[in-house]
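Molecular record:
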Amino acid sequence: MLSRLWIVALVPLTLLSGCNNTLNPLCGSARPAPLVASLSPSTVTFSDVQNGVLLSINGSQFVPASEIVINGKTLAATATSAQQLQVMLTASVISGPGAASVKVVTPSGNTSDVGCSSGGTSSVLTLTVK
């Protein structure tokens, strides 16, 4: 009777470190870092804010867990698509006229330490409040 010998090559997982998530099959639940492009509107009056004004953040790689951070205050956002998030601005978010910093944060997903990046913080855009 002949027996078969199987040789299996084991590739250390450390080789996957720094890989692009799309190339790493172990990154299935990783979330992409958000990218911001513009605000709509980019300028509002403080009276608009006091009455409540809808702010849209346009960009890409948004997921339902993405959050909007305005002047350091984290707000739950509505993801209308992977390219747009929306939030209602009120006086509890913006206390007066001036420049407000706006960024998007996506919390990390359920990944283990296998070279997957997950989530991240976008660059900052400026909302002008007159």
